[in-house]
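Table S2 (text version). Query chain:
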Amino acid sequence: MLVELAHQVGDYLHDVFVAQLDGWVILGFVAQFMFTMRFVVQWIASEKAQRSVIPFAFWTFSLGGGTLLLIYALYRRDPVFIAGQALSTFIYIRNLQFALRERRAARAVT
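Corresponding structure-token output:
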């Protein structure tokens, strides 16, 4: 029974991670990596400041990863994923606008 279960799990993992591997899956992994990096840069910035900080790179990775994930979701025709990433992409763009405006204002003061 355990051997059969191990074979079924192995077959499943092979199907998911090897048999389906194509350019779109690679794009999905790149997108997910970029999306994950936003949390890494936010964590590092917060650790350095010893307070919660959201750096510009957080929004850059959010927009890059979110846009690539939206493209991937559109290709996969996943309505839940499409709806979530489409809305999020607009939020990332707006937050980047705020961050850019703040950077320009800070440069004008100095």
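Notes on Table S2: Residues 26 and 41 are 23 Å apart (CA to CA). The chain has one domain: 22-109.
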